Amino acid sequence: MVVLKKIWVFLKTHWYIPVIIFVGIIIKSKSDSLLKIIDVQKESYEKQLTAIEAAEQQKIEENQRIEKEYEKATQKIEQEYDKMNKEVSDRQKDIIKKTVKKFHSDPDVLAKELSEKFGIQYVPNKNN
Predict the structure, then answer these.
(1) Residue 51 confidence (pLDDT)
(2) Residue pLDDT, tens place only, 29-47
(3) 117 and 99 in contact (C-beta within 8 Å)?
(4) Comparing C-alpha atoms, which of 86, 85, 114 is closest to residue 101?
(5) Rounded distance, CA 127 to CA 108, Å?
(6) Residue 35 · residue 41 · CB < 8 Å
(7) Measured CA angle at 109 (ends 108, 110), to 5 deg
(8) What does the alpha-carbon distance between residue 26 and residue 20 come to, in Å, rounded to a whole number?
(9) How far is CA 20 from CA 8, 15, 17, 61, 89, in A?
(10) Distance CA 128, CA 125 (A)
(11) What is the model's pTM?
(12) What is the pLDDT of residues 92-114, one digit of tens each?
């Protein structure tokens, strides 16, 4: 019984020591859980960051692919436009050549004929 009385007196005088030990044990057991939670959150953050970076990279690559397709389409359209203009120009030259050969002796008729074929307004010369 004396031992219990000595323990009781010690605890009444130094009550904070067992409380600190008890709190330390609780904190230690919880700190492992807190460390696990922090690790899981860190892994989750890194996965989210990786996913965001991958999505951004994919978006950049998609924009580059679209830009390349646009450039190819634009070049193809320009080439076909140039080809069509050249064909039209060659056709117009042939028409002009045939018309000039046909009406070379009468400049007024030649001018009227060319104006009709190419949609140009003919203004007759008033000096004649």
Answers:
(1) 93
(2) 766 777 787 888 889 989 9
(3) yes
(4) 114
(5) 12
(6) no
(7) 90
(8) 10
(9) 17, 9, 5, 59, 99
(10) 6
(11) 0.44
(12) 778 877 877 877 777 777 777 77
